[in-house]
Amino acid sequence: MALAISGMGGLSGASMAAVKLSSPDSQLHIPLAPRSGYSFGSRLLPGCKMQFPKKRYRSTLTVNNIASEVLATQKDKKAVSKENQRPVYPFAAIVGQDEMKLCLLLNVIDPKIGGVMIMGDRGTGKSTTVRSLVDLLPEIKVVSGDPFNSDPHDPESMSEEVRQRVEKEEQLPVTTTKICMVDLPLGATEDRVCGTIDIEKALTEGVKAFEPGLLAKANRGILYVDEVNLLDDHLVDVLLDAAASGWNTVEREGISISHPARFILIGSGNPEEGELRPQLLDRFGMHAQVGTVRDAELRVKIVEERAGFDRDPKAFRESYMSEQQKLQNQIYEARERLSRVQIDRGIRVKISQVCSELNVDGLRGDIVTNRAVKALAALKGREEVGTEDVRIVIPNCLRHRLRKDPLESIDSGLLVEEKFYEVFG
């Protein structure tokens, strides 16, 4: 597209000029009356060129691809901004800790499993592994401009405002975004977690408005709590309430609002710093036990990999780009395959028999184990659950649900494995 300004007579006079906007299929003429003394300079517009023929007072202003240049500049700024963000250690570069990595992947494939509790020694890469999961998270469809990441097709994951718009049969603007991971710091206040009054709107506009908190941002995403066993009791109560109902209700200064808060709860901690309340521990779908690597060769490899990342994070991440892409594709295919995975009734009965003989309270153990084995089968590319799938995941699903015996020296996971072999043969 070209833009031309033409006029007869002196450029500084008050004569009429015309703007000609031409494209392959349209032309537009707009008369202009320039002010006296106005002249066209080189700083009129970036990318503009002025031509002044000697014999005629005819000026031509040519504008080339300004829109595309602006879009390119915006893309460059986004790319630079992404590069300047704090680099994340690649998930594919994590050495060892297979149990923890498997539990995290299964929860990404099926968020209904209910999250992971990772307990282990200090310095074993718990936080690093969880935060490295960000690159592997798939995209989801959300309603544009909605602070609660509402699902445009699932009423259970819609905010009240979006639901009202659906009832009015409005056309919802839909976009895709990556599943977000929200860090819940130990020093966070209850208002910051649940949401509070928007003071700015209250003072400027005189209206009571709600400012969403971390639970709203974490809806349909991941809520990560590092050192979860050190979390204040009142925040634990908030998490318990939201995790149980899938909704967060806020009562503040005459405002009552409820919004969906369905998230994957991931926590990590060191058992030396204290135990977790049984009520909160039961809310985690799976439990991963992390130990210090004892093999000298593996320890050296971990140190070398970490040194390479610290030296040049960008080059290190690029070296693992292909492996990261393979993991992303594997997760995407597993999520697509999950709905087709079948589990034999005989296997279901044996899973429940293991839970019953271990005196597991409630039925969460049965439900989570059934979901986890289906996610594992989908991850392996199968549509039928096998006995081996149950053997791999059942200790992680039941270990933290057993009643604690202070005189018992054997690990809870080993107790679950023994009962598995006894029931499944």
From TrEMBL:
It is found in: Plastid, Chloroplast. Keywords: ATP-binding, Chlorophyll biosynthesis, Chloroplast, Coiled coil, Ligase, Nucleotide-binding, Photosynthesis, Plastid. GO terms for molecular function: ATP binding; ATP hydrolysis activity; magnesium chelatase activity. One of its GO terms (biological process) is chlorophyll biosynthetic process. The keyword Coiled coil applies. Residues 317-344 form a coiled coil. Pathway: Porphyrin-containing compound metabolism; chlorophyll biosynthesis. Transmembrane segments: none annotated. It catalyses: protoporphyrin IX + Mg(2+) + ATP + H2O = Mg-protoporphyrin IX + ADP + phosphate + 3 H(+). The keyword Transcription regulation does not apply. Involved in chlorophyll biosynthesis. Catalyzes the insertion of magnesium ion into protoporphyrin IX to yield Mg-protoporphyrin IX. PANTHER family: MAGNESIUM-CHELATASE SUBUNIT CHLI, MAGNESIUM-CHELATASE SUBUNIT CHLI-2, CHLOROPLASTIC. This is Mg-protoporphyrin IX chelatase. It comes from Taxus chinensis (Chinese yew). The lineage of its organism: Eukaryota, Viridiplantae, Streptophyta, Embryophyta, Tracheophyta.
